[in-house]
Amino acid sequence: MERNLKNVLVISFGFLLLFTAYGGLQSLQSSLNSEEGLGVASLSVLYAALILSSMFLPPILIKKLGCKWTIAISMCCYIAFSLGNFYASWYTLIPTSVILGLGGAPLWSAKCTYLTIAGTSYAEKAGKNAKDIINQYFGVFFLVFQSSGIWGNLISSLILSQSSTKVEISEEDLECCGAYNCLTDTTNTTGSAKPSNSLIYTLLGVYTASGVLAVLLVIIFLDQIKSDQAETEKEKLEAPSFWSTFLATFRHLKDKRQCLLIPLTMYSGFEQGFLSGDYTKVYVTCALGIHYVGYVMICFAAVNSLCSLLFGKISQFTGRKLLFALATVANTACIIALLLWKPHPKQLAVFFVFPALWGLSDAVWQTQTNGLYGILFEKHKEAAFANYRLWESLGFVIAFGYSTKLQAYIKLYILLSVLVLSMVTYGAVEYLEAKSSSGTPAATKKENGRPHSQETHM
Predict the structure, then answer these.
(1) Which of 97, 246, 403, 441 allows an S-S link to 45, with CB 3.0 to 4.6 Å?
(2) 438: phi > 0 → left, psi -120 to 50 → alpha, else beta; which?
(3) Whole-prediction pTM
């Protein structure tokens, strides 16, 4: 096997193992650690730490340690979060959430840097176009990585469904499920049906082992980048100083289009935060039990992956406006239906319809919003994507931050309001673009490629 491709596969399967654990654990936080809202508070802290990490750490760590060891050490930050869940409390989960958040940005930056160097290196030897090889390597990576959401949630559901203490949820308890959940006692059914500690420890043990395997795979099988290649990449990383990059991020807000895209970018964080933090708790866990959370999130992950691939291909025929309209209609329909629907175990199929439609919408928000940033701000990509990471992460922080303070119906109204605002401001961006570049077909051509979103899978 060609050496560079071997390294790409090592990174891909390393991330698969790591995010199999993290993805499954994130879906369960609001249900597993529901006391005083500890689970969603930890996720809010995690994304706040990620914002800080994105601003400071990646160039420094990659310069000092190189890509291989930055990846390995950052992966250990994720393992720390798994270990913190063994004895979940404010003193263990919050610090380990900070550690994970700080490790998140360097991990993804080092991965991107490594794949770029590997692709460029092979292209030079083979006399091929570097851009094509890099795109192929990223394609291989995301093909393997995207399935992590399925495996992580499958493991959690298979293990947690072994519980011998299945509790029949009474009609009275079911009244506390759904949009108008009983805020003072949202875990009335969850508490009685909570899996035994031995099952929870088994699950966390599997997740921790998966993370350790990821680190070992990288340490043992991933080649260190050759010094001349690393030095070239370091020079690129050193070129803009931290402060110039930091200031460029905020200077970019002078662009009216960037300001108008803030609601849409934050909405991406809001809607993902609602699904993993609220839908899983007040609908699924409350009415069906915690062991169904994994199955429901598998449905979301599978539809999301398939639609991401599909929309990347059909966008050249439909254009992004039609896809944004489709996502808006699907998400709006879900929000209105969730406001009206009273979840009941007899309506099992309905619990899977919502994450399926949510996955369809999220695929548009991820692929098309990333693509839109790349097209509109081609000359200032770094500052633009730094803004993307900043505002999406802020959306996560806010969504998880108010998760335990408000009833689900209020969060759904907030979600709907932000969605409407997002579409109004997005429409303004399209209007400005049409006005300034009418008769320039370049933008239409560029929007066809599917970008690779990373922060969404933090």
Answers:
(1) 97
(2) beta
(3) 0.78
